[in-house]
């Protein structure tokens, strides 16, 4: 089907290439008449071509007697990188492990230099072997080449594959030994727009960015920024700008221009194709005024589930799930089954798991769980120290299908010490439309005298805790959240007119297994996911409640660690778990 002039104009958005207006450049466009001289020249050329082919067969055949023909593939890569690839490939082929295969399907889209490693993002449809079957390649400005094994590989069916490479030298380009893509120069993580979502409710784009350094828990001044859309953000004449309507922490919300909405809709419907250069539509944040600058971006605006504008009527339709959970984790696979199975039993219906660079087999654990019983979605979230942005991202994704969403960690378990259930609590507050958040207290449990990970799980293994609750966590209505999506320590700011409610400890609370055996607890020193919380090894805020009191900043086990944080013995959740989950025949628990 022919596309309109307007569609052709949209398809050129962000491209610096001129479009021919239909001049006399194509063969045969001026009619079918040929001159006799032209015909004679063609016949002479044909005779000459046949003569050359015959000579090639004769002389080539003489050369080929007793020898095999070996075609050579030439690559238009920088020679230094090509040499590195060739030498590495010869080594791999000599080892016989099949790692020398180059796949045309493996296309590098971006690379990002994170604080402790290098992230390589591949194009959709890129298929990767195991990490031990290819190499990360580094090329520096002085033509030095390095080859290192990747740390891990992560891939999901509905998104790009991710390769985690060891950190390389500064000012280098990176590629993979099995990819035909040329090396790419990594973006710096601390100055980057890294993901974006399209919100059809208000025709806005929610942009997540590092580098603007907005203060935690406070609104920024949106008039200082604008959003920039285009395929090549370095060309001011080929971008579209729009105003930012809210700015907070790492989250910016701006108006999605009509032109961009139309273009993205037509691209999704297949009515127009990308430019020949293959560049996707990107969005970034630009500061306004004197010294204006635009952040580098790898963020392609992704659509959220479509919003049904007729849903909110007097006869309000119930959402698919009454209770969902969002969490962000790293290397917690061994505790995942217990956490999901327990919360499924008490009434959680949907899980959004944001995987922050796990390499401990989380995909195998989730793959072993029956998807008809456990509705779990794993979302790759490689962005370090960005928990608040991840929770905002999750709140938007959960909004259309979840009435309530709990933001809790993998070592936190909802507990109902009285006679009420989770569904009783949600039903009670769902009838109060001005309540947008339920706050519940957290009890922090210690090692409970243990030195080894309890074989039957954390809920039955740790039974001694601190007497006073520490902070509280939230269950929120995603429809009630402030459009800025500000959140701090699992709490969101609400829309004007919405309120929170404190749920009594006799009704609902959280058992937080915060201080487990040292083997588990010491992993906290590897880093924190929260943006505005210092890592455990940093000499900063040493006395904060986010740390273990008296522990300091070194991952050295205190002699009395097993007996710490033990003031009250509490077997309430342990007793409930044994009653509800223990197999009467074997005495075992399902996880």
From TrEMBL:
This is Glycosyltransferase family 92 protein. The lineage of its organism: Eukaryota, Viridiplantae, Streptophyta, Embryophyta, Tracheophyta. Pfam families: Glyco_transf_92. The chain crosses the membrane at residues 44-65. It is found in: Membrane. GO terms for molecular function: glycosyltransferase activity. Keywords: Glycosyltransferase, Membrane, Transferase, Transmembrane, Transmembrane helix. InterPro entries: Glyco_transf_92. Signal peptide: none annotated. Belongs to the glycosyltransferase 92 family. The gene is LOC125519695. It is a single-pass membrane protein. Its EC number is 2.4.1.-. GO terms for cellular component: cytoplasm; membrane.
